[in-house]
Each structure stands twice: as C-alpha cells, then as structure tokens.
Amino acid sequence: MSVISVKLPDALRARLAGEARRRNVTQSAIVRESLEQVLPGATTEHGEPTCDSLAGELVGSVAGPRDLSTNKRYLEQAIVKNHARRRKRAG
Hints:
By secondary structure, this protein is mainly α.
C-alpha cells in the first residue's frame, strides 16, 4: 500500500479524528472509505466493482419517466404486462 500526505484544515482534521474515535477505526481507514465512495470505479467492501461503476456512463442514459418506483399507474401497467406474458407462456 502506498503512502500519501494530505493537508487538511484544522476543523476538518478534528472532525476526522472525532469520527475515527467514534467508530474505533483509524483516520486512514475513513479517508480510504470516503475516497472509494466518491471516485469512479468504486468497489464494494469485498473489493468487487459496484453495479454503478460497472454500468458507468449508461446510468441515467435511458429516457423515460423518473417515478417508476412510486407511480401507481406505471406499476399497474407493469403488472398487467407481466400477467399477459405469463398467460402466453402457459398457453
């Protein structure tokens, strides 16, 4: 593992130290975790790529309604389509 040096404002350094004490981990662990979350190509805690990093530029590139998960009309349409699809397979 490589070593780097980072300059932090006193207030941010104090917050980092406080969070490290609260979680009982090193300050370096918190910095590494934070960088993993914000930099492209992020990985899970097991070192595997996340779905977001694998999809890359595809995320958000599909046009369509934004409220698919909360709009009951879209949910009802999906249920009807799925039901029709099942009937065709069974028949």
